[in-house]
Design brief:
With about 450 residues, the chain is mostly beta strands. The protein contains 6 helices and 31 strands. About 40% of the residues are buried.
Amino acid sequence: MKKSLILSVVGLILFCGVPSLFSKRIYIVVDNARLRQSLISFPPFKNLDEDQAAQELGEQVGRIARDDLEFSGLFSFIDPRDLSLWNKGGYELSDIDFKAWTSLGTEFLIAGGYRSSGDSISLDMRLYDIASAKMVFGKKYIAQNRDIRALAHRFADAVIEELTGEKGIFQTKILFVSDKTKSKELYVMDYDGKNIQQLTFHKSIVFSPAWSPDGKKISYSTYTTHERNLKNLDLFVLDITTGDQKVISRKPGLNSGASWSPNGQEIALTLSYEGDPDIYLMNANGENVRKVTAHPALDVEPSWSSDGQKIIFSSGRAPLAHLYRMKKNGEAVERLTFAGRFNSSPAWGPKGEKIIFSGDLGGYFDLFLINPNGTGLQRLTKSQNRENNEHPSWSADGRHIVFSSNRSKKYELYMINDDGSNEHGLLKNYGNIYSPAWSPYLE
């Protein structure tokens, strides 16, 4: 999967509403947005040449960008019943009737226009702060028609970053495993469940996909055939910029559950070639393998802290499966969870403040949050019909979680906010779907 196929958008900065190169105004504090959403208006973009061939493309870009901003949870949209306010003028600073928009209660206004030229489209976009009657930013984007989804996501990311000072997640991707082809293969899609692409064709079973921290490589495990026709669970790395893939660990037994260190130089995983499954570290190329845990119980599913100094993992040493924390060298092992019968799939949040995991409290799995020191246990989901909610993965901004659930009698993908709100379906009718892995920020 080449980068040009993911995104062929050129963003040309035309204007900047920031008065100083040394300071940048924060219009929306993300934590406060949970208490009060900002009021924004997003009228349809103008078809500058009145080209009917471009009309559908321009409308599609607007819909996608609006869906992105709505997903963020930061905004409440104000749609005027009378569009004469929009139709009577252009979208330059001098064209905006700030008093009229203020009377509607609008705090921020998105405005712009587009032109089509052959197989490409250009969009000229503006973001205005109504209270100060100033433009926050203006940009021009040029994209191939086939890449308008990427263009819309990039614009929505720019809106988020300009208003909050934090990156948007709309250009991120999600890996998942599906048995749609009767084998369990690896797929990737946009964060919103669109633009699905199949990545592997092993005709086998893929396990535990994981992103490298730069988003350029993916690790996963799958069964391959070794000498004497023996099946073995080997660890692969796929370069998504070139499509090249290779085996980096094929020791006898398990080579699974890989987790990349934040600096991308090390991989933590479970190996069993020396006997019991334990946590090991290796270089990102598979070299310099060293054992970290040495316990007769099964130690699996390592996840790195955001500073790269600690690892959380699941172990049966309780004897039931619970979560443990340790230093990356295996020292200072400490049990974190005590509730429930089986706790698994831990994932350390990108900001290091919380750990998400799947736990069995009443015979079925739900999602829970816990502090890195084991305090503050919170339940995010509650099984209603004996379903399992499993395999959680964080968004790059730490505000959203994707997970797999069989509440529809098949495993499908769902999302939930980190405070338990806005739980909704993401991807359905694509076979059984397992092991989602949300990417880091992608360039």
